[in-house]
Amino acid sequence: SWGYLIGDSGNGHLNDKVSFDDYVRPFPNGRDSFFVMNAASQFPRATQLNRLGIIVQGFPDEGPEMCPKLGAEGWTNWWFLPDHPHLQRGDMLDFYDKYVAASHRLAERKPLILAFAQGGRFAVSRARIHARPKAYYARMLVVLSKEVNPQEGFWMEAVWWDVFHPEALQSKTPLCEYPVLGEHVTRGPYADTGILNAIRAQLRGGRW
User: Fold this and answer.
1) 122, 142, 160, 199: which one has the fewest Cβ atoms less than 10 Å from its Cβ?
2) d(CA 164, CA 115)
3) Does 2 reside within a domain?
4) CB-side neighbour CA atoms (13 Å) of 58
């Protein structure tokens, strides 16, 4: 089902104008994977933003594209929650370098924006999975199996694209266009009533 609004148990993480059928259609537009990025996080700050199509319905330019057609305007403002799961413990960039980028990691560590599909909803072909050797997955499985609810499990939601696309790591090339991230960000959650009402008002007024 559509949406991801805090406090609504009926949300199913689908973006507006995207259906489950889109995920089971073989090789959509000739591609061997299907991702609809509806969130992004910046590390190490763990600030986040969300695609407007996952929190409000009715955008004329929304659809099953990987990134918003509106570019930077297709996202909420950057927001921050001090108790966000991405921040509980550990060093996400260290995990990314060692286990996700692995042999493709950059020599110099720098802040990283990762676009991802909220809820880990995506589809990949067998060839995509085989883009990494079996040993790569085995090494990662050891880390993810060390306890019942490892911190790394929360980070995995944000890195699935990079796991299956070693030739297109987000640490090297951004996937989408994002709003500028300044020093000051909105205190989350993104689903604040004022934010949603402002977006709906802009829709009614023909802003999009």
Assistant:
1) 142
2) 14
3) no
4) 12
pLDDT digits (tens, 9 = 90+) for 49-58: 989 888 888 7
Query: Which run of H or E residues covers position 187?
Result: strand 186-187
CB crowding 104-125: b at 16 or more within 10 Å, else e: ebeeeeeebbbbbbbeebbbbe
The structure tokens listed for 145 are 């199996």
pTM over 0.90: no
Q: Could you tell me if residue 64 is inside a domain? A: yes
On whether the CB atoms of residues 176 and 167 are closer than 8 A, the answer is no
- Are 157 and 51 in contact by the 8 Å Cβ rule? The answer is no
- What's the CA gap between 146 and 144, in Å, rounded? 6
User: Residue 143 is inside which H or E element, if any?
Assistant: helix 134-144
Within-domain flag for 128? yes
Pick the closest to residue 112 from 43, 168, 159, 59 (CA basis): 43
Is residue 62's pLDDT more than 60?
yes
Q: What is the 3-state secondary structure (H, E, C) of 81-141?
A: CCCCHHHCCCCHHHHHHHHHHHHHCCCCCCCEEEEECHHHCCEECHHHHCCCCHHHHHHHH
Domain-located, residue 42: yes
Where in the sequence is the domain holding 197, given as residue range(s)? 21-204
Neighbouring C-beta atoms of residue 155, cutoff 10 Å: 22
In which residue are the tokens 């829709």 written? 203
Distant-in-sequence, close-in-space partners of 49: CB < 8 Å, separation ≥ 6: 39, 40, 75, 76, 77, 78, 79, 178, 179, 190
